[in-house]
Amino acid sequence: MGWTRLYALIVKELLAVLRDPKGRAILIGPPIVQLLVFSYAATLEVRNVDVMILNRDSGHWSQELIERIDGSPTFRTIEIAADQAEVRVAIDNQTVIAAIEIGPDFSRNIEAGAPTDLQVVLDGRRSNASQIVAGYLSQIAAALAAETPAGKRTGPGIVSSVPRNWFNPNLTYQWFMVPNLIASIALLIGLIVTALSIARERELGTFDQLMVSPLRLHEILIGKLIPPMMIGLFHITVYILAAVFLFEVPLRGSLLLLYGSAIFYLGSVAGLGLFISALSMTQQQAILGAFLFMVPAMLLSGFATPIENMPGWLQPITFVNPLRYFLVIVKGVFLKDIPLSEVVNQTIPLALIAAVTLSAAAWLFRRRLE
Fold it and tell me: Can you give the residue ranges of the ABC transmembrane type-2 domain (predicted)?
């Protein structure tokens, strides 16, 4: 009889979400759009850069430098300035992000083996992109310097480093971004769906009926827990298929390990959602509570910046963030083929978070009954 009651509650929760046209649209449309948009737009790479060059030199080496900049896939257009006033206007109006001024003695100094300088003017209003563009220009200038007469003479005595990138040799940014989105969008959907479940019951006036029904407290928790986990597993499956077949991200590890850890991850997310829902009286409060947790969780997960770069007092807070652990698992399974031991080490905290949050949600339910 217990299984019959539990099955009825699970079906009721799924119908409450799927029968609503708006609910279906929220579950299907936005996650797919976010996956497609963020995979292409959320990148720290700088491409299609417009630059301006003020060339005061008529020699060979200045032309060689311009051709190398023009041939780089990073730069989209190169505008040639007539004077410094034109450079100032272009930077002020954000027509270009960088301007390079080549002095009149640039080629002569190179041929003579004398030091020569380049002036690079960057748009400081776009600080991150400007720093990356400055790094690109420095690499081009360094490669050109190695081919000058002075560079060839000193070349044998120079120690150079050749970087080799593991797991993502071509540094394809979507290989980093798409696995991150699998974890983060699953957090978004699972948290909101679960947070709304009990708040919706209160607004519709069915919460008291649910509490006086033959369902026991643990059955109510399980019945509220399983449907969001089923929806989350569906979304994760769609994202994995899109990652492999649409974005061509290599899946080097075991799907069994990925899905096994995903169950604990979704359980911890659903536990947090139930805890938020138990605290909320309305669906609006539940949504606000979910976003109140979700935004810091994204920032403190290592999604964009490494946790090791955060202040020492802030890093312990990330231990209660389930997204932190599942990001390691999903990226490791996709790109690194991490072993079972590493997956278990990251899954144990997820199980602890799920146990604590579900226990807290059960305690709040009991308080409601008293």
Answer: 134-368
Cβ proximity of 271 and 361 under 8 Å: yes
Task: Enter the tokens of residue 300.
Answer: 């403190």
Angle of the 217-241 helix axis to the 2-18 helix axis, nearest 10: 50
Separation of alpha carbons 310 and 317, rounded Å: 11
**Cα(220)–Cα(211) distance, integer angstroms:** 8
Query: What is the Cα–Cα distance from 24 to 138, expressed in whole angstroms?
Result: 51
The answer to whether residues 34 and 185 touch, using CB atoms and an 8 Å cutoff, is: yes
Neighbours of 364 (CB within 10 A): 15
Number of residues in the chain: 370
Assigned token pair, 94 = 């954000």
Strand pairing report for 98-102 and 49-55 = parallel
Closest CA to 193 of 32, 330, 24, 318: 24
Q: Is residue 70 a contact partner of residue 87, using CB atoms and an 8 Å limit? A: no
- Tell me the C-alpha distance between 365 and 216, whole Å: 11
pTM comes to: 0.76
Q: Mean pLDDT by 10-residue block, N- to C-terminus, for the chain (370 residues)?
A: 72 76 69 74 72 90 90 88 90 90 88 84 83 87 81 58 77 84 88 81 72 73 84 90 90 93 93 86 83 88 82 89 94 92 94 90 72
CA distances from 314 to 269, 300, 304, 328 (A): 21, 9, 16, 19
